[in-house]
Amino acid sequence: MARLLAFFLVALMLLQTLGQEVLVLDYHLNKARITELYCVNKARPQLNCNGKCHLAKQLRKADGADKKAPAGPLAKVKFEVLPTVPFALRPPGRWRQPARRYALPPAAHYAAVAGPGVFRPPLLLA
């Protein structure tokens, strides 16, 4: 069920994104029917319109619908106040001890004290 919903939503997004391409594809698949029903230049076959005028009208209408914008930036902004439920984040029950506020400082190593390994820092003479 989740896959079907995902495919459906992807198809809707693609149709919205590729709207003009879908109109052109529909025109090429149904060119004869569009020429019969919608062509305004049937009387002048030398123009070879073949329904391109109808396609141009559809593309202009689709382009105009995409470019419609609200009058102002906040013309259609709607603010809603939703009721809130008090919510507290509590640690799980396995945390018995409270966490320390700050980590313990690392043990200080001085040059005079031999440290582990091969590296020996130089002595500081004051």
Helix/strand layout:
Blueprint: H1 2-17, H2 19-29, H3 31-38, H4 52-67
Largest sheet: none
Low-confidence stretches: none
Tell me the number of helical segments per DSSP (H or I, 4 or more residues long).
Answer: 4
Average of pLDDT:
75
Shape: elongated
Structural class: mainly alpha
Number of strands: 0
Report on the architecture of this protein:
With 126 residues, the chain is an all-alpha fold. 40% of the residues lie in helices and 0% in strands. Helix 2 (19-29) packs antiparallel against helix 4. The radius of gyration is 36 Å and the shape is elongated.
What's the quick description here?
The chain has 126 residues and is mainly alpha-helical. Helices cover 40% and strands 0% of the residues. It has a domain of 49 residues.
